[in-house]
Specification:
Number of helices of chain B: 7
Number of domains of chain A: 2
Oligomer: heterodimer
CATH architecture of the largest domain in chain A: 3-Layer(aba) Sandwich
Helix content of chain B: 55-70%
Radius of gyration of chain B: 15 Å
Strand content of chain B: 5-15%
Structural class of chain A: alpha/beta
CATH topology of the largest domain in chain A: Aspartate Aminotransferase, domain 2
Number of domains of chain B: 1
Order of helices and strands of chain B: HHEEHHHHH
Number of strands of chain A: 17
Distance between the termini of chain A: 21 Å
Strand order of the largest sheet of chain B: 1-2
Distance between the termini of chain B: 20 Å
Largest interface: A-B, 18 and 17 residues
Structural class of chain B: mainly alpha
CATH architecture of chain B: Alpha-Beta Complex
Radius of gyration of chain A: 22 Å
CATH topology of chain B: Sufe protein. Chain: A
Shape of chain B: globular
Helix content of chain A: 25-40%
């Protein structure tokens, strides 16, 4: 095998140090050591996240906010501490700007729905990009249906970067919302979020950023970005599934109507008229996912303990090494080659179906994602049905990339 | 159940057992898949002009086209897929069921799928694709049977 030099490079110790904190990684799949390259779908969880959730159920499980008893107080304090931690981590100006949701999809649905009901008017325009996940398309289609607003699409260039010139031309006083993905799950493209937001602000539009893929790879500051909404999913950044946050600018949250009705979101209920609690509680109906919130807090704590510059540098090395090694395979066709890219490689092998590749890789112990990655409009734009996607985390190693290359060659040989 | 149907089922079961024996020859999953891929090459291909959207089976990551006709009271399936492994799976189903009467196809328990580990080793969503293929083949058989009974 060519190009294994880096396998003994200086950062092996870094990856090993991270790797040993993730118990799941140490297992065999189909008789071979697992290679987990599906991190953009969900990341694995470090021991301290698993422990934090475990401890919650063993030691202080209780319903939050309403109880006067000891355990309820402990659980409420723990949950509100996570809100503070998220506010601090995302650079929000106050913790009331952090709404707990079920994840990015939940957050976008919340924002799109309330904007559709109380802000958007017939003929208003919502700008989305061609590289959006279905989760950042369909909620806006629903909002457009409620409000009579119109959706316009910012195209993607051949290399997977956003066409900013076309974006500029689409912006007008009719533009009321610009919603876009920070880091593309299907292509890895890192969008110039601050620039996109600043251009939107010039025409007075609100902005929502889908941060699903961003937090694991970089630090985000919502005030520096100057966005109005930012959504996250904990399971994409080493936390549990079913929990995330919607950051919203406080003045906006105050003005906008509630989303779902239920417990905790109310001030006073009568059958004639109900008044609502203040943000963030106005938007948090029902008993929240307390264990998930605790797990999310632990994942943020874990992220804060990592040297983000080292993580970025190592992920960049993985990406560069993988790109070089995969490019040597005959018929390798990368999809998305933006110069500013997260550690994701989407590709096809000429004449081979992505599904076939995925099945055979699985049999060789490698977990990759195949298909349209919930971005069908983007696949249409490239005139493909789907891709094979390898997405990396700091616990991945150069040896694992060597195994991918070897497995792909074997699959290619079997399939052609 | 009449004798004719029982004979049909025995014939289908003989073909199922044949497939099971073939796959049992391989210990390694890669070899089993290699065999599946080679079975795909023996698939009676659907006519290109029949590869229309209404003949696509939903529920697979890859596209599967399936068509069926009747010859001397026996169902003849033709199919194709844009993925080679999927083509192998549909080819195995076609091999087991082709040339049977509609009643035989409807009454047969397709035990070979579990026995060669296909269902177990394909994830639930992919397995749905497999079950969708079986269902579509039975729907064709049902339609032919209904036509026969008219």
């Amino acid at each position: 095998m060519a190009n294994t030099l880096e396998a003994t490079g200086p950062n092996t110790a870094f990856a090993e140090g991270i790797r040993k904190q993730f118990p799941l990684l140490n297992q065999q799949v189909n008789g071979r050591p697992l290679v987990y390259f599906d991190n953009a779908a969900t990341t694995q969880k470090p021991q301290q996240v698993i422990e934090a959730m475990n401890r919650y159920y063993r030691e202080y499980n209780s319903n939050v906010h309403r109880g006067v008893h000891h355990l309820s107080q402990v659980a409420t304090d723990a949950m509100e501490q996570v809100r503070n931690r998220m506010a601090d981590f995302l650079g929000a100006s106050r913790h009331e700007e952090i709404i707990f949701t079920s994840g990015c999809t939940g957050g976008i649905n919340l924002a799109a729905h309330i904007l559709g009901r109380a802000y958007l008017r017939p003929g208003d325009e919502i700008l989305l990009t061609e590289m959006e996940h279905h989760s950042n398309i369909v909620p806006w289609q629903l909002a457009a249906e409620i409000s009579g607003a119109i959706i316009k699409v910012i195209p993607v260039l051949e290399d997977g970067t956003l066409d900013l010139e076309a974006y500029q031309n689409l912006l007008s006083p009719r533009t009321k919302v610009v919603a876009f993905v920070h880091v593309s799950n299907a292509l890895g493209t890192i969008n110039p979020a601050a620039e996109i937001i600043s251009m939107a602000k010039n025409v007075g539009a609100l902005t929502l950023v889908d941060g699903a893929q961003a937090l694991a790879h970089e630090r985000v500051n919502v005030q520096d970005l100057n966005c109005d909404f930012y959504v996250t999913s904990a399971h994409k950044h080493y936390g549990p599934t079913g929990i995330g946050v919607l950051y919203g600018r406080y003045e906006l949250l105050e003005k906008l109507p509630p989303y779902q009705g239920g417990g905790e979101m109310i001030d006073r209920v009568t059958f004639d008229r109900t008044t609502y609690n203040t943000p963030p509680f106005k938007f948090e109906a029902g008993t929240p996912n307390i264990a998930g919130i605790i797990g999310m807090g632990a994942s943020i704590e874990w992220l804060q303990e990592q040297d983000i510059e080292q993580v970025k540098a190592y992920e960049h090395e993985l990406l560069a090494y993988a790109t070089r090694a995969l490019s040597e395979i005959d018929g390798f066709v990368p999809v998305g080659t933006s110069p500013n890219k997260a550690a994701v490689i989407s590709f096809n092998l000429k004449g081979v179906h992505h599904y076939d590749v995925g099945v055979l890789l699985d049999k060789m112990g490698l977990a990759l994602r195949t298909g349209h990655h919930c971005t069908q409009p983007l696949m249409d734009c490239y005139a493909i049905e789907g891709t094979v996607r390898a997405s990396f985390a700091p616990y991945n190693t150069f040896e694992e990339i060597d195994r991918l290359v070897e497995a792909l060659r074997k699959a290619q040989q079997m399939l052609s | 159940m009449g004798n004719a149907v029982e004979n049909e089922i025995s014939a289908i079961n003989r073909r199922q057992d044949e497939v099971i024996e073939e796959f049992a020859l391989f210990d390694d999953w890669m070899d089993k898949y290699d065999h599946l891929i080679s079975l795909g090459r023996e698939l009676p291909l659907i006519d290109e002009s029949l590869k229309t959207d209404d003949r696509i089976i939903r529920g697979c990551q890859s596209k599967v086209w399936l068509d069926a006709g009747m010859e001397d009271g026996k169902v003849q399936f033709t199919a194709d897929s844009d993925a080679i492994i999927t083509k192998g799976i549909i080819a195995t189903l076609v091999r087991v069921l082709n040339g049977s009467t509609p009643a035989g196809i409807l009454e047969t328990d397709l035990y070979f799928i579990d026995r060669i580990g296909l269902k177990e080793h394909l994830s639930p969503t992919r397995s749905n694709g497999l079950l969708a293929m079986v269902k579509q083949m039975k729907i064709y058989a049902l339609a032919f049977q209904a036509k026969n009974d008219e």
